[in-house]
Design goal:
Length: about 400
């Protein structure tokens, strides 16, 4: 509003400036009654001649001079102004909402609408010189007693995600992943003098299906900050490592699992603060894993709970293109077996830098590419995700 008002004021001043000049050239000095004219009379060009006619006698103003002055004022009023008058200035186009790297960006699906999205994800992780005894949770879930020299893992996932708006502020989500996973291990069995051997395994199947709810607490206000509550529930629909046979000589799994074997729930809070041309965000979550009894010699296993914190900002380059940068820190607590911490396990700190790029065709149709680079030894080396909506 301030910008529009400024334009109107400038046009108004430029429009009346010639009128003042004409009066100065063609009329004598005004009397005291003329100088006390109200601002409305000054702004109205027709008020000036009226005050001249009603001035005190002896002013020297004749009828011929009045006609000449009116003619001069009329010509100055019809001169084209510097800026168009009567035409509203063009409204500034607002930049599109920037996609961020959090799972919920604040653009909730309207009530009764369905969005289907496909994500292609690739994860690469390597580790070396890991001593593993019994059962532990690293990037791969292993059972046995071995000495691992190096591990290289690759995950290829196609995740089909469904979003449905129950209300304009409540959204449900379902993620159905298909996983293809490979692992290369260079190992030497314990208590053996043989040379290190290389083992390659792979596995593919449906992964752990997830369900979620996203709720937007406020529509506006709170200093321009928006708050969203999130709850994600992960199932154990994928193949778990405890049902897969192992190789007796190495203690490694014969095929790779596509799931973890545990149910988990993750409540979280997302905070968004839009400020043109950026959107700042922060996301905090707590992952609670439920214990599972696998029976036999394994017993009851709890993979350990975790906390997840991410923050960053998305920047709009133009009406279609934006990029984002952020950081994610996950802390995973040690696993337990029958209530006792598994030996040689520790707290894992997984930190990653995140970079994203998106191209918005419309509000609900976009292409998005995310890259995460691990900056701590426990984090995956790289994770690449490409997202595209299929139906809305």
């Amino acid at each position: 509003m301030k910008k529009v008002a400024g334009v109107v004021i400038i046009v108004f001043v430029m429009g009346i400036a010639p009128v003042g000049a004409a009066l100065a050239d063609n009329t004598p000095a005004p009397s005291s009654s003329a100088t006390s004219a109200t601002p409305q009379e000054t702004a109205n060009p027709s008020a000036a001649p009226a005050s001249g006619n009603n001035g005190p006698s002896g002013s020297g103003t004749t009828e011929e001079e009045n006609k000449k002055r009116k003619k001069t004022e009329s010509s100055s009023e019809t001169s084209p102004p510097a800026s168009p008058v009567g035409i509203a200035p063009k409204k500034k186009t607002e930049p599109p909402t920037v996609e961020t790297l959090v799972s919920s960006t604040g653009i909730l699906i309207p009530a009764g609408k369905l969005l289907v999205e496909d994500s292609l994800e690739y994860i690469h992780n390597t580790a070396s010189q890991l001593a593993i005894q019994g059962f532990t949770v690293v990037s791969a879930l292993l059972v046995g007693s071995i000495n691992v020299q190096s591990v290289s893992q690759d995950y290829y996932m196609d995740i089909l995600t469904f979003y449905y708006g129950l209300t304009n502020r409540l959204e449900v989500e379902a993620d159905v992943p298909y996983v293809y996973r490979t692992e290369n291990v260079v190992t030497r069995p314990i208590a053996s003098a043989t040379s290190p051997i290389e083992v390659n395994t792979a596995g593919s199947d449906i992964g752990d299906v997830q369900f979620g709810l996203h709720y937007q607490f406020n529509q506006s206000g709170m200093g321009g900050t928006f708050f969203l509550g999130n709850v994600m529930v992960k199932s154990n629909s994928g193949s778990n490592p405890f049902s897969i046979p192992i190789t007796s000589s190495t203690g490694l799994l014969t095929v790779q699992p596509t799931g973890t074997g545990f149910w988990s729930v993750e409540p979280g809070l997302t905070v968004l603060f839009p400020t043109d041309p950026a959107v700042f965000y922060a996301n905090a979550g707590y992952i609670y894993n439920f214990s599972t009894n696998f029976g036999g010699a394994i017993g009851t296993i709890n993979p350990g709970n975790a906390t997840d914190l991410s923050f960053g900002a998305g920047f709009s380059l133009n009406e279609q293109t934006s990029f984002s940068i952020g950081y994610d820190q996950m802390t995973m607590w040690p696993p337990t077996e029958n209530g006792v911490q598994i030996p040689l396990t520790r707290v894992l700190q997984m930190g990653s830098l995140m970079f994203g790029y998106s191209y918005n065709v419309s509000r609900y149709f976009f292409y998005m590419l995310n890259v995460e680079a691990g900056v701590t030894p426990d984090a995956p080396n790289v994770q690449i995700t490409f997202r595209i909506p299929l139906f809305y």
